[in-house]
Write a structure and sequence with these properties.
- The protein is α+β, with helices and mostly antiparallel strands.
- The chain is 44% helix and 12% strand.
- The protein has 10 helices and 7 strands.
- A 7-stranded mixed beta sheet has the order 2-1-3-4-5-6-7.
- Helix 5 runs antiparallel to helix 6, helix 8 packs antiparallel against helix 9 (280-294) and helix 8 packs parallel to helix 10.
- The longest helix has 22 residues, at 128-149.
- The two termini are 30 Å apart.
Length: 312
């Protein structure tokens, strides 16, 4: 079972936060001194909060990242913490002699709170660089949500770069981060399914020739007279009692078999090979690959097949 970090280990992580943000997760205790605070750079903040909850005495958790500037430990998150978190953190730092002044900032409100949860210390003006960053970041977020709604895998490289640029922007590097968001959008555009080409219209059939004018029928009396005058002449060369020959039926050309969809065949072959031992993620990717293969999007289907092999 995981244990709480001791003051010496917390000091080590606080000093590491001078060179860049580290993740934190905490769980409030029944007393401020019983608060569980976990710091790490490799583990996610949400995972640290879950771990702190398993150690702590209550279910009140909070997570985000923190940086150290001088003697100030700035805790940052996307939402306001549970009531009493900042006073408890301050008392926890004093009780363990960590030697830092606790501050809190939210990325949503862009304001810094110090000590107790009353009063705003300072307002951060929205500079043109920050406005440009927020606009570009919102466009990336909308693109990611669109891919997820369409059940298209989001490239891990794009997510990792986006996360890193968000951290840099939070440290004040909005202008450089905004410029590099174009790389994230390019990766997301490459992952998006391409629109299908419109079907070619069949050539119009040639117009039928106009019907011939009906011939004038002769009067019945004239027909009878013509039959009387002209007697049928027998064919001397034709054999007797021979039935007239019927025209030979025309041979039909064999129908051409439709071209095989090689990509769809590969999808079915892989599904057959994984039958009975397929994970839900592999099944999801195979269904999406089959759909793209039927639509002719072979590149997208091939990418999903590679994802199935990696997920094995």
């Amino acid at each position: 079972m995981a244990s709480a970090q001791k003051p010496a280990e917390l000091k080590k992580w606080l000093n590491a936060a001078r060179g860049g943000a580290v993740n934190f997760g905490l769980c409030l205790g029944r007393r401020p001194e019983d608060l569980i605070l976990l710091l790490d750079k490799s583990k996610s903040a949400r995972a640290l909060a879950t771990q702190a909850k398993a150690i702590g005495e209550t279910t009140k958790t909070f997570f985000g990242d923190l940086e150290v500037d001088g003697n100030r430990a700035r805790f940052r998150a996307d939402s306001d913490p549970p009531g009493g978190t900042i006073p408890a953190l301050r008392k926890f730092f004093e009780a363990n002699k960590l030697g830092f002044k606790v501050e809190f900032t939210t990325d949503i409100a862009d304001d810094v709170r110090d000590g107790v949860d009353t009063g705003r210390v300072r307002d951060m003006d929205l500079t043109p660089e920050l406005k440009a960053w927020r606009k570009a970041d919102a466009a990336v977020e909308a693109k990611v949500r669109g891919l997820m709604d369409a059940k298209v895998p989001v490239p891990p490289k794009a997510l990792a770069l986006w996360k890193e640029l968000r951290k840099r922007a939070a440290r004040g590097e909005e202008r450089q981060s905004t410029g590099r968001l174009a790389q994230v959008m390019k990766l997301l555009d490459e992952a998006a399914p391409k629109p299908e080409a419109p079907e070619e219209k069949a050539a119009p059939e040639p117009k039928a020739a106009p019907p011939e004018a009906p011939k004038k029928e002769e009067k019945p009396e004239a027909k009878k007279e013509a039959k009387r005058d002209v007697a049928p002449q027998p064919n001397k060369d034709a054999p007797m009692n021979e039935a007239p020959k019927e025209p030979a039926p025309k041979e039909r050309a064999p129908k051409k078999a439709p071209p095989k969809n090689k990509t769809l065949a590969l999808v079915r072959q892989m599904a057959s090979r994984l039958k009975g031992k397929m994970t839900p993620l592999q099944e999801k990717y195979l269904k999406a690959a089959a759909t793209h293969a039927r639509r002719g999007a072979d590149d997208k289907a091939a990418a999903l097949l590679r994802a199935v092999q990696k997920a094995a």
